[in-house]
Amino acid sequence: MEDGMTRAGVLARWGAGLADWCERWFPDAFVFALAAVVVVFLGGLALGEGPLSLAQAFGKGFWQLVPFTMQMAMVIVGGYALAVSPPVHALICRLARIPSTPRAAVGFVAFFSMMASLLSWGFSLIFSGLLVKEICARVKGVDVRAIGAAAYLGLGSIWALGLSSSAALMMATPDSLPPALKSLSGVIPLTSTLFIWQNGVLVLALVAVSVTVAMLSCPPPSRARTAEDLGVELSPPGMLSQSSGKALVAPSTTRPADLAEDSPLLPVVVALLGLTYLGHLFCSKGLLQALDLNTYNLLFLMLALLLHKRPRSFLKAVAGAVPATGGVLVQFPFYGGIFGIITGTAIAPFLADAFAGLSTPATFPLLVALYSALLGLFVPSGGGKWVIEAPYVLAAAQVHAVDPGWVVQIYNAAEALPNLVNPFWMLPLMGLLGIRARELAGYSILQLLIHVPLVFLLCWALSFTF
Asked: What is the per-residue pLDDT across 372-406, written as a single tens digit (0 to 9) for each?
């Protein structure tokens, strides 16, 4: 036991040191997006493209992702609003009563974080963060670094294999596909990506391994750094509100405007109207055929509106979600510009030929996984990075006759790996818990060391089943 704890402590210290180095030397993700524009521009010049043609391609591509940008922002808003609704919070309070020991608590949060991420990565972050605060208020001796990292596991492991997968939903949504991608691969339905048995194997393997590692690496109470040690503010059990962490008190007023804002009539009627439309759509087209980014976001928003019941409560939740959308709103247009340069110049054919020439049908899955994971360190966006990567990856897949749906899933599995060390998507969770990235990094890096060989092995081995 002592040796095991020593190894875990070394990994945690190494992770904290790496996080310190990243905080010192790594600028904001937006700086990487700007740098990527410059790199792609210089690459075009090296391939003989003129500066004016590259600038035109950048400008034409800049706004191509506006619908997709809005859709991804709504994933965050809908997931957040649903997670902080009163019924879901009541569920969180009941779940928090189940674990009774620190190790069980960490494994419990890891499991529910990953299960929630299969529904929505935005929902998972908030749901898991609230669950952590409720559990830490009940179970003594929980290491908040270990349980905080467990709460982040959904976004760091299997979120892209679930229903909010940016790449899979984009490929299944005709309106979200840029023309260049649509002409290359056409629409790829979810029955060819998320709902194949190989994806189920990936999910089950990652959940089992991640929960096991989270539990075994949890330090005993004598070695734990608790919420009190790190200054994490915990409310009494059951007292967290929808978005502020404080008890929500309804205004005592009889003004007509306030009464309207606290009336459940309009939200319930509108939510039922939207859900009726979705029910008819799913029945007429089939769930898998009808599910895309638009129907997915509409479902989450209507459920959140129904569960909040009152306009005031719903708008309070939306206001809490808006800050987390800033990175998506400002960075995705620049990813669109990068996409325009790549697809509108000689860069895409060059990269497609390079991918095809450097790999064989057997090694192509490993090359895609490696490239996707490395690029994710600099472009921390599943959807934005897929837009950059898809044109030449899918073109090379055609050369090797690799199933395009499986290429999307290889990308999805590998894309989540850098999230374990990249603080960009940790921000909502860190804000909710009041901790820093460095305090999560040690346990996240421990997971990363095990996830990398597991994901690469599964992506390669399962490719032979197509």
From this structure: 888 777 666 677 788 888 888 898 888 888 999 99
Domain residues for the domain of 357 are 2-27+47-243+262-465
pTM, two decimals, is 0.76
Lowest mean pLDDT among 154-158, 302-306, 418-422, 452-456: 418-422
- Give strand ranges (E) for 245-380: none
Q: For residue 122, give the nearest of 417, 427, 444 by alpha carbon.
A: 427
Q: How far is CA 207 from the centre of its chain?
A: 16
CA 348, 353, 358: angle at the middle one, nearest 5? 130
Residue 249: inside a domain: no
Number of domain units in the chain: 1
Instruction: Look at residue 83 and tell me if it is in a domain.
Output: yes
Separation in Å, CA 12 to CA 140, 172, 315, 422: 21, 40, 39, 16
Reply yes or no on whether the pLDDT at 407 is more than 80. yes
Interhelix angle 404-415/364-376, nearest 10 degrees: 40
**387 near 340, Cβ under 8 Å?**
no
- CA–CA distance from 177 to each of 167, 168, 339, 448 (Å)? 10, 11, 12, 31
Distance set, CA 253 to CA 77, 246, 256, 298, 309 (Å) = 29, 21, 9, 32, 18
